[in-house]
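JOB MANIFEST
job_type = single_chain_structure
chain_count = 1
residues = 389
[input]
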Amino acid sequence: MVARRKVAVVGAALSDCGRVDDATPYALHAQAARRALADAGLDRTLIDGFASAGLGTLAPVEVAAYLGLRPTWVDSTSVGGSTWEVMAAHAADAIAAGHARAVLLVYGSTARADVRAGRRTGTLSFGTRGPLQFEVPYGHTLIAKYAMAARRHMIEYGTTIEQLAEVAVQARANAALNPEAMFRTPATVDEVLAGPMIADPFTKLHCCVRSDGGAAVLLVAEEYIRDCRTSPVWVLGAGECVSHAALSEWPDFTVSPAAVSGRLAFERAGVRPSEIDVAEIYDAFTYMTLVTLEDLGFCAKGEGGAFVEKGRLRVEGGELPVNTDGGGLSAQHPGMRGLFLLVEAVRQLRGECGERQVRRGDGTLPRLAVASGTGGWFCSSGTVVLGAG
């Protein structure tokens, strides 16, 4: 049996993000990809693997062509917000097995600019085909599905709306340290609660922002590390899971598929949740952060509300800094945000985050990070454990 190669992230970058009115999604893909390659210090001729989703009719064919790439390994897995953690797992497996030497993951979206220009409308649902046809007649918007799950947790475990609001407040506190975040003005629990109702119990600040932006990550086999300008961030373990196609098929609204993907990722990495220094968690809505923290094992089921209410998620003074860039709630959310989680986790482990840089109790840089993406309406999850070089 051929020995499996170690795999590292050596390039991680964002395109221009936030309010970008003068770029196409293809241009944001290209900008992020160029920046990731420059970050790694590698030439694009090394890339023989490519993964992309969410743009064009034949992703990743169209995006690869736009970038001038001719990959011999491709992935177009599309499972919503968890797409990029799942793709990273697939890419790491391919590299480890010798099927590719360098895989580029890239994403770009002008979700905000398109709405502003009238090229599209807000995404209230994912359509009416397949299993969804049995729910659409009842008026379930996408956000309503998350709101229903949050309400179930509140009923089952006594989670309060104030505790959910704390997730938004602490995300904004972290965003205040990030000069690239869209919204940096501090928020209070009272301000979150006083906002306009979007879908009970979610007011406006319980919901992610709509932005433009792109991201890219480059993974390579261990033998190419010596040619890189950056310190490697090793892929230690990953897991993925799909749960349900329709909300009516979800066995328990208080348990997300991260309970499976997280367990697999930690087992394969050989680490425990208690060893993690920083966590990047998909946060289209505040409840996603809370329930994912539970399902990844950072606290027991039903204790997420108590866990988040004491400032534990903050970069400054938090026991487990979460969404250190401000997350989808405050930094940026251009559609499928999972790749942004990986970029931020890599930057934190390399000590490149400036004012928002996480430090361990002894003042050293973080050694372990987890990125966990959620897709659809808690339909899918991908979790990746990363370790500093």
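[summary]
The longest helix spans residues 25-40.
The two ends are 27 Å apart (CA to CA).
exit_status = 0
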